[in-house]
UniProtKB/TrEMBL annotation:
Residue ranges of domain Reverse transcriptase zinc-binding in the record: 91-176
Keyword Membrane belongs to the record: no
Designated name of the protein: RNA-directed DNA polymerase, eukaryota
Organism: Artemisia annua (Sweet wormwood)
Pfam families documented for this protein: zf-RVT
PANTHER family named among the record's database cross-references: OS04G0516500 PROTEIN, PROTEIN, PUTATIVE-RELATED
InterPro entries: RVT-Znf
The entry's keywords: Nucleotidyltransferase, RNA-directed DNA polymerase, Transferase
Amino acid sequence: MAEASSFWEDDWNESGPWNLKFPRLYALETNHSCLVADRYSQGHWSWQCRRNPRDGEEGSQLAALMEILSHLSLDSNPDYWTWEAEKSKKFTVQSARRIIDNRTLPSCLFPTCWCKYVPSKINIFSWRLLLNRLPTRINIVEKGIDIPSILCSICNLHHKDADHLFLHCEVASQIWHKVGIWLDQPFPNFSCVYDIWENLDEQPQTRNAKIIKEVIFLSTVWVIWNFRNNVIFNNSKFQRSNIVDSIVVKSFDFLSSRYKKSSIDWNMWLQSPLNSM
């Protein structure tokens, strides 16, 4: 029996609190905080009212309540909570977090990806990139902030959104082309940043090859972003060959320091990275 549940104020019968469903009867009750056990004794329901219910609305509500009670089957088991988000009806932090995330986080075409072979800051950066939450010039303007120009700070030709910065800018396009030559793979023409992650999942490849490509792709977008920041904030001059060299070195450092199953030869990494482990 729901001994510890309030007869009127708890939703112990899963049809809503009865103080809201039967307000006229609740007004007649002398003990608004009474428990279910206070109203059920030896197989019968009993009441404590200031007066007997009258005909009309009070009588109709009493008849409706008794109809519901007649179909209830009570037992002596103790009360317990159930959690509807799990088939087991038991509460888990994982299911609670899933509910909170679904209600508060922006939707994304891809689940959050976490690559354990690159630093956490790069994983967070890539997640923001997928959600279009990086402070590109277009995004800054859309937040109502005035800036001198929304043109790409690298080529100074097109509006600077994430797709242009990381893929379609002349410099970015050439970087990806050189990365493809280094990987010895014809590089696809990505139309948007989502295509980078789609390419990882769609291409037939070994598990190790996928790990290597993921590290290289993440290193590439990270280096492009840092290169862009140096151009804007440090007014730095650049050589495109140095950008690709930085991708090669950083991706090697990330992977060799975090992949524990085997060592990675530097010379092999330079010549044929997909076969280096």
